[in-house]
Design goal:
Elements: E1 3-9, E2 16-22, E3 27-32, E4 37-42, E5 49-52, E6 57-62, E7 68-73, E8 76-81, E9 87-91, E10 99-106, E11 112-118, H1 121-124, E12 130-135, E13 141-148, E14 151-156, E15 162-167, E16 172-179, E17 182-191, E18 196-202, E19 208-213, E20 217-221, E21 227-232, E22 238-244, E23 250-255, H2 262-267, E24 274-279
Antiparallel strand pairs: 1-24, 2-3, 3-4, 4-5, 6-7, 7-8, 8-9, 10-11, 11-12, 12-13, 14-15, 15-16, 16-17, 18-19, 19-20, 20-21, 22-23, 23-24
């Protein structure tokens, strides 16, 4: 599989995450969770536009309005307007102490799905208090998966009938049958011994491209979970993947500086950068979420 480095955008994100490609504006968009900022990098530019946010943004989905995202802020779901910062809360579930929202993505049905993570095990009363939620059209929440520590690696097969999801500390990707009724466990398709699965995306051929935290690479899996290739990065903590560019053949990978020692940062000057690769694969247009009524 041909994967060639294209560019490194040195934004020094503390915790870059949740990257998507907005085909309308021809830009990669992602969040730095800890810095409470949203980044937008127009195609052909090496200087992103940065928007300050009111809270930590774990993930988000595009909508039909290019000025509006559906956001999974730390405490819950909101409709957020980028131009003026108007934030309309849609759903704020009663999360245990020490639990916040993390990875999320729009499904192919037009719903925003996002999961929580346990930041403080003692405060939460256990490491398995995370839940994967789906925000329905009426702004109610469906609970899709329970018993999670750090919800991650959320993506869908091209036809939308299979959901892939990971609990990072378990070092596993799990497959679920998926439709309007919910998610049904099918099997664990991949176990990792070289890193922790973080954000992921699926290409047009159904291959899964998952960032492996602590392994400094992106693993490419076939739909059955077998590893086809490994894409190395110049940073040990890749966090999320997306395909974009005019031909949807550019792989973008966010990364993080948080938790790295001064010595590690000296060895990894590109930690926290956005990495771009030209690939022999083609991605899928990012699904847009309906704004609940």
């Amino acid at each position: 599989m041909l994967v060639e480095p294209l560019a490194v955008i040195r934004v020094a994100n503390e915790l870059g995450e949740g990257i998507v490609w907005d085909e309308r504006t021809q830009a990669f968009v992602w969040t730095d969770i800890l810095a409470r900022r949203l980044y937008r990098l127009p195609w052909g530019s090496d200087t992103p536009v940065v928007i300050d946010l009111p809270d930590r943004l774990g993930s988000f989905a595009l909508t039909d309005d290019p000025d509006v995202i559906i956001a999974a802020f730390a405490p819950g779901f909101a409709r957020y307007r980028l131009s003026d910062g108007q934030c309309d809360w849609l759903a704020r579930p009663a999360l245990p102490h020490g639990v916040c929202f993390n990875d999320g993505r729009a499904d192919r049905l037009g719903n925003f799905v996002a999961g929580t993570m346990v930041e403080n095990v003692a405060a939460a009363g256990g490491k398995d208090r995370g839940v994967l939620y789906r925000l329905e059209e009426d702004a109610s929440l469906s609970e899709l998966v329970h018993g999670l520590h750090i919800s991650n690696s959320l993506c869908w097969s091209p036809d939308g009938r299979t959901m892939y999801h990971g609990d990072s500390p378990a070092q596993a990707i799990t497959e679920y049958g998926y439709d309007a009724r919910g998610a049904r466990y099918q099997r664990i398709i991949s176990l990792f011994d070289d890193g922790y699965p973080d954000g992921a995306t699926v290409d047009a051929a159904g291959r899964i491209w998952v960032a492996l935290w602590a392994a400094g690479c992106v693993a490419v899996l076939d739909p059955a979970g077998a590893r086809l290739a490994t894409v190395p990065l110049g940073a040990s903590q890749p966090t999320c993947t997306a395909f974009g560019g005019p031909d949807l053949d550019i792989l973008a990978v966010t990364s993080a500086r948080t938790e790295l020692s001064d010595a590690a940062l000296a060895d990894q000057p590109d930690a926290g950068a956005l990495f771009l690769f030209r690939t022999g694969a083609r991605g899928l247009a990012e699904a847009r979420a309906r704004a609940p009524r």
